[in-house]
Amino acid sequence: MEISFLTYKRRLEAFALLGDFLNSPDPGLEELILQGPQQNSWFTVENIRKAIAGIGQMLIRADLEIWFNSASADFEKKNQNLKAVGLILAGNIPLVGFHDVLCVLASGNKALIKLSSSDQKLTPYILTKLTEIEPTFLERFQFVERLIHYDAVIATGSGNSSRYFEYYFKNVPHIIRKNRNSIAVLNGNESKASLTDLGHDIFDYFGLGCRNVSKVYVPVGYDFKFFFEAIEEFKAVADHHKYFNNYEYNKSIFLVNMQKHLDNGFLLLKQDERIASPLAVLYFEEYVSLLQLSQVLKSLDQQVQCVVTNMPVVSQSIDFGQTQQPKLWDYADKINTLNFLNTLN
Length: 345
Known about the structure:
The protein is an alpha/beta fold and 345 residues long. The protein has two domains: 8-179, 3-Layer(aba) Sandwich (Aldehyde Dehydrogenase, Chain A, domain 1); 181-308, Aldehyde Dehydrogenase, Chain A, domain 2 (3-Layer(aba) Sandwich). The protein is built from twelve helices and eleven strands. The protein has helices spanning 8-23, 27-39, 45-58, 61-70, 98-106, 122-133, 159-168, 192-203, 225-230, 241-256, 290-299, 337-343; strands at residues 84-88, 110-114, 141-143, 152-156, 174-177, 181-185, 213-219, 262-263, 268-271, 281-287, 304-308. A six-stranded mixed β-sheet has the order 8-9-10-7-6-11, sandwiched between helices. The longest helix is centred in the N-terminal third of the chain and has 16 residues, at 8-23. 35% of the residues are buried.
């Protein structure tokens, strides 16, 4: 694929300037933000702003330099035979697939982008701004309805669609992402501030993302009263009709089936060994010892995206309230996307 070479420094500079733009959106982007709920009712104005600000904070110059320098590739090496990478983006939360786009552009390859039907306008607008900053990027991406003529693929979907993707793209290098969830581990001594921060991990984007906490592990006999008090400020999620419909539906299921649960009016807690909980439900499980818990968490590694805790139960954990504020190097499914793309060259 013969296209203009774009140096590492120009790529980094363009991303940094894009970050500046996202931190101060122009009227055009503001209009899209306000129109978001009309296109997808889950995409509230608050959540779109949160997603845009998150990418803006991700594209800090110092972090971009760390990210580029950590990649196993010579960014100054001219490669006039760049690869076309097909991207099948998810649409569960606003701009959820934008990091994959950044990775392809950062690696110097070309992105063939199949947008989610749930998120059709934000990514094109932001990429248009990127081309205004660095016009060479015009040659580096293309929006497509169907993937053809690709050298590699990164696809995100459900458990069912991932099996289809695995089969369909088996003959090219690929990353196929499946459903994942995040968990939290409590010791019973957390401050109210920490538990309120955990509320963000649970409720941001209504809990629809893989980085949202869907289950908590608590010591035997844990009293959830303090937890409920700490998350009371998130009760406004019940004002969203789709969220509240899910809350009422799951509550009715528990009541009809006489399943024991806790209820604070906008979140249902149920003891369950599973990781992925229904919307408006938080699963919990008790543990006896940290040793036993560490062994359980190790067995769940392929299902879990983030572990939120202040306890030494996993090698890498995230502070309370930080799951929806990833850095550039916080890769989905713990697969270094940038290194994967650099191996294509």
